[in-house]
Amino acid sequence: MSKLAQAQAIPPPNPLEELTAHLSDDMKSVNALILERMNSEVPLIPQLAGYLIAAGGKRIRPLMTLASTRLFDQTTDRPYRLATAVEFIHTATLLHDDVVDESDQRRGQASANTLFGNQSSVLVGDFLFSKSFELMVEDGSIDVLDILSKASAVIAEGEVLQLSIQNTLETTLDQYLQVISAKTAALFAAACEIGPVITGQPSEIRQAMRNYGHHVGMAFQIADDVLDYQSNTKELGKSIGDDFKEGKMTAPVIFAYEFADEKGKKFWIRTFEQKELTEKDLEHAQKLIKTTGSSQKTLDLAQNHIKLAQNALKNVGDSEMKSILHQLADYALTRKN
User: How far is CA 103 from CA 42, 113, 197, 238, 279, in A?
Assistant: First the structure.
């Protein structure tokens, strides 16, 4: 095999794996703190919380909290509490989401609410939210408390908005973007803003990192919404077609309905608004999303956010960490099934 062929046979580096390796020592400290702070004298709390936290998540939000700090300071241990707080907020929202969505799977295994019940899942989610605020208070930064408390409120607003437009084919692209900006991008943005705040960076750097996190979060969620309609996808850690079955108005469906012919529109009305689903409807939905060009339109939307994320990093000094974060934005679309 030629050197060129050998080079082509080698898959490109995975920036998320690179980031995880680069921050492995920091993440050991964060993981230890996660285990410590989710402990309780009530056995069900660490049992349920640990079930979800240990279920194979990539920890991308706490990783971004650490990365946004290490861009500017290589030694401070301040991000450990805050990365833990970010992970607790994220885990709490997942617990609440699965109850609201009546999900039976999360990250490829039975969801916490399926095993432990809805009431326990909601209450343990509340416990983790409370613990996250304890950690913020311990850090002592009013700015950080402001960032993460606002993000928590925005996430809840996004949940309510998503619920209000569920199964509604008149949902606009702007409404969809508002939902994912709140539900996903808000915590990404907050995680990336924390680093420049606790390392004393100027306001323009703080805003640049916030913008980076926002657009990366948007790109990841938009890409995930496409992946939910790809039959061979296993990366999401959930059953393919969950969004379809739950009637979630995501960009692929919004585009597919907009460009559908009369027969196609009748299909979307039956499956989404009338909630009449048959065994083969998911396969047909996947076909319609592909033939109307909706998948590509959605991916183009994600690509735009990737460019905006990478542009935001131009104000940050060059470093290995910056290079990894730049590549991480591209990873939203280069993930393999």
Answer: 25, 8, 37, 9, 18
Q: Which of 90, 105, 91, 92 is CA-nearest to residue 245?
A: 105
Given a contact cutoff of 8 angstroms between Cβ atoms, the answer to whether 61 and 23 are in contact is: no
Does a structural domain hold residue 98?
Answer: yes
Phi-psi category of 188—alpha, beta or left, where left has phi over 0 and alpha has psi -120 to 50? alpha
CA 257 – CA 260 distance, rounded (Å): 5
Q: Which residues contact 258 (CB under 8 A, 6 or more apart)?
A: none
Tokens of 2: 């030629």
pTM of full prediction above 0.85 = yes
Q: What is the DSSP string of 207-256?
A: HHHHHHHHHHHHHHHHHHHHHTT-TT--TTSS-TTHHHHHT---HHHHHH
Contact status, residue 166 vs residue 248, Cβ threshold 8 Å: yes
Q: CA nearest 281: which of 229, 212, 223?
A: 229
- Phi and psi torsions of 106, nearest 5°: -150, 125
Q: How far apart are CA 244 and CA 261, in angstroms?
A: 19
Closest CA to 128 of 87, 161, 162: 87
pLDDT tens digits, 48-77: 988 887 765 789 999 999 999 999 999 999
Structural domain for 286, as ranges: 14-334
Residues 6+ apart with CB under 8 A from 277: 245, 271
Q: Both tokens of residue 154? A: 């925005």
Residue closest to 230 by CA, chosen among 184, 274, 283? 283
Q: Is residue 4 part of a domain?
A: no
Do 97 and 159 form a contact (C-beta atoms < 8 A)?
yes
Residue 1 maps to a domain = no
Q: What is the pLDDT of residues 103-124, one digit of tens each?
A: 777 766 778 888 888 999 999 9
In the chain, how many domains are there? 1
The enclosing domain of 233 has a CATH number of: 1.10.600.10
Classify residue 64: in a domain, yes or no: yes
